[in-house]
Design a protein that fits this description.
The protein is mainly alpha-helical and about 260 residues long. Helix content is about 80%, strand content about 0%. Helix 10 crosses helix 11.
Length: about 260
């Protein structure tokens, strides 16, 4: 069954959606959208390092994404506004990554595949990495769900409950780094943040509890992957952007229906 490239692509898209769904909810609640972009942009530098050192693309992207996550966590609140700090780190890492790629000699690299994803070229090994990373992220978020939710709602309440909100933020940022590393093959570094934010934002209007929002976001993300891949196959469009377009259409429809309902009420 896995010999079919469309089957592998579909499984890869659903795997990324499952990892991004609960994480995307926290990104939306904490207003960390720019942080997702910064971590994703840094992954290009990881790709360049991987090609230079002849190591796994996943390993290089994960290493740089983890360094970015740790750096932001350490430097936050030390004299710079968070959006300023993220802007400096994100665009610097992206620029250094693109320059580093240009120095690679004797290596053929399709930069567009890393910027916008190449889900149709997912291999069995890639599937193992994607689903392994997704399982790790889901397990970690599930394990720390109450603590993460409390720290998101109120840091003082988190301290009163006996745990450090900074530690929970670190867990969240590390999970984000893993998600970025596994998603780079599917939607590329420029669209990873979209898969984090758009399904979660659409689910926000449909769910009545945080847990329900995570589940609905996973359903929207998975459906977007399946429908987007099918649309790309039928209309001969790029697969990664097509997936994001479907998620954006769902978000627009949910909000349009919401406005009409509120008008009637």
């Amino acid at each position: 069954m896995l010999d079919d490239f469309m089957t592998r692509a579909t499984l890869a898209g659903v795997g990324v959606a499952l990892a991004a769904a609960p994480l995307g909810c926290f990104v939306v609640w904490r207003r960390m959208a720019y942080f997702g972009d910064a971590t994703a942009h840094a992954a290009i530098l990881g790709v360049a390092l991987s090609l230079t050192l002849q190591m796994s693309i996943f390993a290089g992207a994960l290493a740089v994404a983890l360094i970015m996550a740790l750096t932001v966590t350490v430097l936050s609140g030390r004299g710079y506004a968070m959006d300023t700090l993220l802007g400096v780190l994100a665009h610097s890492a992206l620029a250094f990554g693109l320059v580093a790629v240009s120095f690679l000699s004797g290596v053929r690299i399709d930069l567009m595949a890393y910027l916008f994803g190449d889900i149709l070229a997912v291999s069995r090994t890639d599937l193992l990495i994607i689903w392994g990373g997704a399982a790790l992220v889901v397990a970690l978020i599930t394990w720390r769900w109450s603590e993460l939710l409390t720290a998101t709602l109120n840091e003082e309440l988190a301290y009163a409950s006996g745990f450090d909100p900074k530690r929970e933020q670190l867990i969240l940022t590390l999970s984000l780094a893993v998600t970025v590393a596994v998603a780079i093959k599917v939607v590329g570094v420029l669209l990873i943040a979209a898969m984090l934010i758009i399904p979660a934002a659409a689910a926000r209007s449909l769910a009545r509890s945080p847990e329900a929002m995570a589940v609905v976001a996973a359903v929207i993300g998975g459906a977007s992957a399946v429908i987007g891949l099918r649309s790309a196959y039928v209309f001969d469009t790029p697969a990664g952007p097509s997936i994001v377009c479907v998620a954006a259409i769902v978000f627009a429809c949910v909000n349009l229906l919401g406005w009409q309902t509120r008008d009637k009420i």
